[in-house]
Fold this sequence. Notes:
Elements: H1 2-14, H2 23-32, H3 35-43, H4 45-80, E1 93-95, E2 101-107, H5 112-127, E3 132-138, H6 147-160, H7 162-174, H8 183-192, H9 197-203, H10 207-222, E4 230-233, E5 236-239, H11 244-256
Parallel strand pairs: 2-3
Antiparallel strand pairs: 1-3, 2-4, 4-5
Helix pairs in contact: 1-2, 1-4, 3-4, 6-7, 6-10
Amino acid sequence: MKRAAAIIISSVLLTACSQTPSEKQVADVIEKNPEIIFKAIEKSPEKFLEVLSKVTERARELEAKKREQAELDEFEKRMDNPFTPAIDKNVAYLGTKDAPLTLVEYSDFQCPFCARANTTVKSLLKKYKGKIRFIYKHLPLSFHPQAQIAAQYFEAIKLQNMELAFKFHDKVYFNQGRLKEGERYLKSAAKELGVNMKLLAKQITAKEVLSKIKKDADEAEKFGFRGTPGFLLNGVPIKGAYPLEHFEMIITKLQGKGKLSI
């Protein structure tokens, strides 16, 4: 608090003095005379609020730059030391199985950014047809009440037919607003696709289904994903619903480093 006050009062004094006192000098004065803070606010409340607003905005800008730099450092690090997600023989995927590009998504069916990212994924699958494999994993967020059950439906349908599971996937994202209807909508969506509803009812809460979703979420956390969507493009993390150009930039960089040939 005293440090923040010192910064603010230093800024106020800057407008009135030809020589600005150092932050330490101001802090020392406040330490001995804390009532200065209150008197300064009482004397010029508008100016104090103006400076406070500027300091707060500056702090936000610095924090944003720190985050951007941290992401850039992580990006460069993972280009040379990529993450390795678990990919078993029963994994749900679209595209070409042994493609040079592997895009893994950790997603939440109720997340609006994931719905937006689905459009980008479709564009990547079209642009790099025959050269990319897309793997869908789950990260249902606690504040999305329908995300977990939607993930269970996807995994249960996948046990019947992977193609049907991805049709369900697209249908739910396209009609995401209807998730507020809960299982009533999920059941109707599955039925419209021709899913075996009796078998689905048994498999929705199967240990295999619940275990798969938990493993996905645990893996996402291990790789530092806290929100959705999160992607790994050949092991390089992408946090957020970035446009197609961002994925293309990473592909170009991987090629430039000799880590990808397509």
